[in-house]
Amino acid sequence: MLSRRLISVKEAAKMLGISIHTLYSWVSQRKIPFVKCGRRTEFDIKDLDAWIEKNKTSEQEF
Q1: Cys-Cys with 26: which of 4, 10, 19, 31 at CB 3.0–4.6 Å?
Q2: What is the DSSP letter of 53?
Q3: Is 53 exposed, middle or buried (0-12, 13-18, 19+ CB in 10 A)?
Q4: Where are the alpha helices (DSSP H) in the chain?
Q5: Whole-angstrom distance, CA of residue 34 vs CA of residue 36
Q6: Which helix (H) or strand (E) holds 44?
Q7: What is the pLDDT of residue 61?
């Protein structure tokens, strides 16, 4: 069975909980990893998971 590795802009925005406009803005600023497939912009699920882990802040103790 073949599993999908790349997801669309709409799917990535939903996964991250942000708007499509914000996601395109981050792409143009190179803030988030993406893949160009011809004219389409897509996102590798593994890259997004790694990006989330890298940008996660740790909980602070009070």
Answers
A1: 31
A2: H
A3: exposed
A4: 9-16, 20-28, 45-54
A5: 7
A6: strand 40-44
A7: 67
Torsion, Cα of 12, 17, 20, 22 (10° steps): -110
35: helix, strand or coil: strand
The pLDDT averaged over each successive group of 10 residues in the chain (62 residues) is 84 96 97 95 96 87 65
The residue among 50, 43, 49 whose CA lies nearest residue 5 is 43
Q: Please tell me the distance from the alpha carbon of residue 30 to that of residue 21, in angstroms, as a whole number.
A: 14
